[in-house]
Amino acid sequence: MHHLKELTDFIQSELQDKDTLLMQNPKLSLVPSKNPHILWIEMEPEQNWIYSFAKRLRNFLSDLGYETDKKKLYFHITLGRIKGALPEYFIDYVMKKTISRISIKLDTITLYKSALHPDGPVYETISKFKLEDTYEKR
Questions:
Q1: What is the pTM of this model?
Q2: Which of 80, 89, 95, 100 qualifies as a FRET site for 32, CA 20 to 30 Å off?
């Protein structure tokens, strides 16, 4: 990426003094809903600042000449990738399954480089951005 320094400076500036994220309301999902190929746990952030940050980040990248994706931002943990069709009974089971109420505290945002390979993506950490741990202060 040609603009890596500008990008990391922008992210550092945007995340300065931002609180840790508390993720909650877990929900098991198959994505996409028709012919799914990913099983994940979707969670919602307690803090809304992350959505405005994502919008500013997309605008920043667009201003640098990068094409950005306009899809809705989903916070999730990927449990697995699916190859082939799933039986209907499994889809029904997953869609009815509930997850215990848990919360996950995120105190770091990591910028990754993703390289696609025939065996799957390979991720390399570019930079880590620490968030303020406001929950420890409560």
A1: 0.81
A2: 100
CA distances from 76 to 15, 43, 51 (A): 20, 6, 14
Sheet containing strand 38-45, strands side by side: 75-81, 38-45, 21-31, 104-106
> Amino acid letter at 53?
F
The full length of the chain comes to: 138
pLDDT digits (tens, 9 = 90+) for 78-126: 999 898 898 989 888 888 888 887 889 999 999 999 999 998 889 999 9
CATH architecture of 4-106: Alpha-Beta Complex (3.90)
Identify how many contiguous H helices and E strands the chain contains and give both numbers: 3, 6
As beta bridge partners, residue 136 has: none
